[in-house]
Structures are given as C-alpha cells and as structure tokens.
C-alpha cells in the first residue's frame, strides 16, 4: 500500500514493531518530528486496518492508530523498500485474559499472546510474505504457533496456519477465539482450572461444536470438502476435534497469504 509520503523516511527496517507511542524503535528527533512521525504512522495503521477489515468482511476495522495508542498491543508492519517504500503487511498481537476449555472440557483462565489482526496486501499475497512477518513475531515473542490464541480467524488465516504450521485440530470454544492442540501443553493457568462442565460445554464435546471464530472454527476444513464434492459433511470427530484434510484439498480453493 502506497502513501502520500516516503515510507523509507519513517522506517529503516523491513519489519517494524510499533507500540502505543506510534514511533518506530530507536526514533530520534525533536518534539515536532515526533508528532509528525506519529501522525503519519497513525494514517498507515488506519488505512491498513481498513483494508484488513474489508478483506475479512468486517463491519469496522480492528486496527487503527487510535486503538493502538490506547492499548498495550503491538503491531508489526512489513515494509517493501522499493522506490519510496510501501507497507505490504500488518500483524497485531496482544495478551488477553481468556476463559477457555481444553479437549476434556476443563475450564481454564489463561492470559496468552493473541493474534488480533493479520493482513497482507492483495498485490503481495502468495509470495510467502505473510510467513516472513508471522515468523518474525513468533521469534521475537519466543512462542510456538500453537501457543497463540487467534481472535476471529478468517478462513484464509486458518488455511495459512494449516499450510505452514500444520495446525488443524481446533479445540472448540464458546467465545470468538480459536486455539489448537498443544495450546495447553506446559501452560501455567491463572487461578487454577475448573473441572466442572456446563451443559453447553458437555454438548460441545458430545459432538455439537459451538460457533467460534469469524466464520465458525470448523468451517474452513469442512467447507473445502463440501465445495469440491458438493456434499454436506460433519467435520467433527467424536472427540470434538477436526479431522485432517489434505493440503491439496485446501490450496486450490483458498487464497493463502
């Protein structure tokens, strides 16, 4: 995405991490320079956030300069320095207090790092740039892909996670977050975990999955088979997980980042 100012004057690295002050790491300048830089970065976040929302079919953006300024979240921007520079990718993460269920139905209070927004500009997709951006975040945060909770993932994002990290077995949740097998491994819990299952959770693990994620967590894999075979399928196994769907089924019908 291009802007009416030179991106290369703002960012000196290919991947830039931003926090509430809306200034790149190591920024040096007078107060007037800081205000100008933060204003331009706010515009970048606003425009990229709107583009991400449109791509995901959302009613309003998840990311903006104002939202980042008033949070403890982090935003990673992927820069293409060619010419005056363009911004080609955005990834927003932040820690959240969540109540989630493991595969047995036990209730946990946790505070994981969450992926809140992820977008690669349409002109730069299918080039592996999304993976470069995601890998940078994983390395800096020192986490594994299965350690993250994903807020309302799109079908494209779920396919991305399956393609590059083999994440396929979703643990059903009653909120908008998606977690995968391995999420609870060696994870400390806040205030312990409850072994009491509500009727809703019991139903979930009796084979009736709740709605999770932006398009329901089970949909990306179930709809692939249904689209190709024109049949209705129940993607859930008896344990509430999603069975393996071969990558060659997903790739032809999904535009991966």
TrEMBL record:
The record marks 56 as: Crucial for catalytic activity. Its EC number is 2.3.1.108. Keywords: Acyltransferase, Transferase. It catalyses: L-lysyl-[alpha-tubulin] + acetyl-CoA = N(6)-acetyl-L-lysyl-[alpha-tubulin] + CoA + H(+). Specifically acetylates 'Lys-40' in alpha-tubulin on the lumenal side of microtubules. Promotes microtubule destabilization and accelerates microtubule dynamics; this activity may be independent of acetylation activity. Acetylates alpha-tubulin with a slow enzymatic rate, due to a catalytic site that is not optimized for acetyl transfer. Enters the microtubule through each end and diffuses quickly throughout the lumen of microtubules. HAMAP family: mec17. This is Alpha-tubulin N-acetyltransferase. The lineage of its organism: Eukaryota, Metazoa, Ecdysozoa, Arthropoda, Hexapoda.
